[in-house]
Amino acid sequence: MFEAYPETGAVLDRLKAAELRLAVVTDSSGSSDSKRRQLAEVGLDQYFDTIVVSDELGCVKPDPRMFDTASTALGLRRDGCLFVDDVPSLFRAAIGLGYQGAAIIRDGSRSADVPALDTLAGVIRHLGLD
Fold this sequence. Notes:
- The chain is of the alpha/beta class.
- It has a single domain, classed as Rossmann fold (3-Layer(aba) Sandwich).
- It is 38% helix and 15% strand.
- It is built from six helices and five strands.
């Protein structure tokens, strides 16, 4: 069962209101249809300009093709994208490729090498949209 965190809809509403282009970059343990269906079932698919699913590309994060497919579809350069994830190795990989990165660290632990956000709502503050 796929569930979004409670703040997700409100945060995505705010980001879309700011006219930001948004993408999902996700690894799939099933089919791309199941990932897309999960997003649709919880009403999140409407927020995203592109959805990049690993089984469609034949690779998984942190392969650069995953990130670059999303940024290309959004019409943005790497340094114009903020990659947000809760897996330290993945946001470090994105940063290593030239993307901006921020980590959602819900358990309070911090790493000095990457901006840490307590929740997805922290993206709004991180981008100066509050």
